[in-house]
Amino acid sequence: MTDTASSAARTATDDEIASVEEQLRRLFGRVRLVWKEAAAAVHPDLQPVGYKILSALVRRGRMHAGAIAEVFEIDKSVVSRQVKHLESLGLARVVADPDDGRARFVEATDEAIASVEQKGSRMQQRLYARLRTWSGDDVETLATLLGRLGSEVVEDGAEQEGAESDANDRVPEAGAASATGD
Questions:
Q1: Which of 68, 111, 143, 177 gets the highest tally of CB atoms within 10 A of its CB?
Q2: Other residues' Cβ atoms within 10 Å of the Cβ of residue 106
Q3: Among the ranges 6-10, 97-101, 118-122, 163-167, which has the highest mean pLDDT value?
């Protein structure tokens, strides 16, 4: 068997997985710091979650609050509070949906667009500069593996939530004590 075939068949050890977990923890910590710095660069009172929402509005254009909540997988109440905060800072505005007067869009202001593009482009430039020092194969492999990990974690999470939901939806057998003690 070749080295490639034997390494492909070998499963990861707990130590190797713990190493990946540690590197992800460090990466996420650094990303949170970058978001915090980027938010402060746009406005000193802007929170990182507000910056992420604002960045999405700049990249994607106007969005419904429900779509924002879905994209970031956060509660609509969080989106509502952040949108109000963005409005109070002059970074976003809420406008009527021309197709449905009852619905509202959230959009970034011109000033916010210019600021986020300027600050975001600095972060993007640093990332691109770093990754340009890597081989094309390494960058492609990184993208593939990150996509795979993200997909599998999301799938596993959805399966886990589904299993928990199924367990919670089951009717107790006759004579079984209920969880509430009734």
A1: 68
A2: 24
A3: 97-101
Q: What single DSSP character describes residue 63? A: B
Residue 75 CA, distance from chain mean position: 13
Q: How far apart are CA 141 and CA 144, in angstroms?
A: 5
pTM exceeds cut of 0.85: no
Q: Which of 111, 70, 78, 77 is nearest to 93 (CA)?
A: 111
Task: For residue range 14-50, list pLDDT tens digits in order.
Answer: 999 999 999 999 998 988 888 888 899 999 999 999 9
DSSP 21-53: HHHHHHHHHHHHHHHHHHHHHH-TT--HHHHHH
Q: For the chain, what's the residue count?
A: 182
Residue type, 83: V
Give the pair of three-digit tokens for residue 43: 């406005």
